[in-house]
Give the backbone structure.
Amino acid sequence: MRFVDEFRDADKAHALAAKIAALCSPGREYKFMEVCGGHTHTIYKHGLEDYLPEAITLVHGPGCPVCVIPMGRIDDAMHLASRPDVIMTSFGDMMRVPGSNGSFFDAKAAGTDIRMVYSPLDSLKIARQNPDRHVVFMAIGFETTAPSTAMTMLRAHAEGLSNFSVFCNHVTIIPAIKAILDSPDLRLDGFIGPGHVSTVIGCRPYEFIARDYGKPVVVAGFEPLDILQSIYMLMLQLSQGRSEVENQYSRVVPWNGNLVALKAIAETMELRPYFEWRGLGFISHSALRVREKYAEMDAERLFSVPGVRVADPKACQCGEVLKGVLKPWECKVFGTACTPETPIGTCMVSPEGACAAYYNYGRMNRDRVPEAARAGRP
Amino acid sequence: MTADQVGHQADPGWIADALREHDHAQRPESPEGRTRLPVTDREQQVLDRIDRARRRRPRVREERVTMSHGAGGKATQTLIEAVFLETFRNPLLEPLEDAAELRILGGRLALTTDSYVVSPLFFPGGDIGDLAVNGTVNDLSVSGATPLYLTAGFILEEGFPVAQLTQVAESMRKAADAAGVCIVTGDTKVVQRGKADGCYINTAGVGVIARDVTVGVARAQPGDAIIVSGPIGDHGITIMLARGELDIEADVCSDTAPLNGLIAGLLGAVPGVRAMRDATRGGVATILNEIARAADVGVLVSEDDIPVRPEVRGACELLGIDPMYVACEGRIVAVVPGDSADAAVRALRDHPLGADAAVIGHVVADQPGIVRLRTAFGGTRIVDLLVGDPLPRIC
């Protein structure tokens, strides 16, 4: 298939594996964080680690929108959904996330009107078909999905639709990366930058990572060769003593981002003073809320939500996994009490979550390709 | 099913059990104190612990039935084993094969039943009628039986157009004729408007196991070859696109077909066939997991060798789903001894419904219970049972 197969070419992967292996200094360990959950998914789905030398470890980052939503916000959403006049719409990957009293799926089975949508615009269709009820869209995601929420709000505003609102949980990636860089738990050698977020925000926002923290960043695409090439580019920077922001995903990511999308976000949303992230705690200016101008489309203003902070279950170590401090299998309940069918934490729910990716795809003994196995040997 | 088995998913007792097991595994072996294990050994311990957890008796943790329970994946399996197998347990039911094998008056009969709730009722390549006949014919055929007689039960919603019902019945007749079976008894119920969605059909079927064959997924052995009879995922993608919710158009149609002729050809050419399954809900991935679990063997398949039509692959890429989990209604997965693989593929290809049959992988001894896929990219990953339901009411 065109535009897909050329980015999954095994011959090119072997060639890259040899080049990466050749850059490994004997005795040195390398830790790279792939910030985005989409990358984590690709790495496991295609078995990419088979191509990496033992000295290179990929650390899974916080860029999984479903994973970072704290339990209190799920409970708030459930509270909104349980109102008889409300139809809640949500992306599919939110449906199985456990709140204090079960997931959206459980609530749906018990009669709550929660509907899965593929695009926020589908919510408007539902709102038009149900003029006597109020449709609340559960908006989640980084800068990747915020523009589509913004465009939906602008469309609803233009149509004068009065029975649609947004429960806004959009988060921004840069403060989370900064929190990880400032955390003493983890020593990283570089970042595989989030490709889809960067289509919106561009590459400039990462410059402080290279400049102030001295860590290379390579913004990467989502096919396995994209990621392998990005690892090669990181290794090349390290071997040459450089720390720069580079764009591997230039076929999609413009250096300055997408100004139309950024404008739509700025028109409809503003930064919250602070927002709670699962595992990372409260991070200032790290999330978006609906602007005053569009208050009639802000579910938090229209309806009261409990807004209670709910602690994660005691056994859950999603926070450590999201920060990259623990590998998924190092969590105490991984694979025994917490599985994709009975998740305790969010990282086991979303296909982009590190635990789900490792459980579904990576839970086995693997063999490295010969090129990778030879790394670091004279 | 007792009340304590239907615990809430955050049941503290059960989490406490897992933590206890974790601590036990972490306990140092040497009396001098804690010796840190090498990373790979620690990961292996976790893998072993997960393996034990997966082999435990399944429990339904939900308080209500969710759509996942009908998806053919892990939740369906848990519901069947924890509720139905637990309650009805008997030696004939226990193998949980597609059809039960009965010994009556010295002969062997196969008996099966299946219900159809597909939406929409009419789709490119077929409708609920031929699906209901072919599905039951295929469940009998993969059990090694020659299908003979079918029953048909209808649950109709008040207001359902008679013209559509006639059309469905006509499709059933044609499908039965094509498969050489008779629909010999039936039942009709009507429920109030809104209490059903148009038309649901149940069919049951009996067949005779005349040949000297015994098939079952538990018979798979290391060295065996795994074969699919044609491109996978056609039915599921067709239904998904026929619903018109995705604004994707592709030239695909359902593969619904009676497979008794194809299977008779295979059994004639390769008497040693170990197992056959038709890859319906849950797709080929679910069948491979059933093989790995029932026979306690490893399964290793190669993504490059799995036939998938470009249209189906394209739709799957767009939707972010894996064709391995998408339903087929006219494809079998067969396990045959390794040295019979070529003969089996030849026999399947001799039949029009098996023209694209291919060996997709092998049964292996290592990592029992786990299905591994060699990806087209050249890496390796697990193919697990499906969790959740990407597409309800596929058949």
Summary: Chain A has a mean pLDDT of 93. Residues 224-239 of chain A form the longest helix (16 residues). Chain A touches chain B through 57 residues (CB under 8 Å).
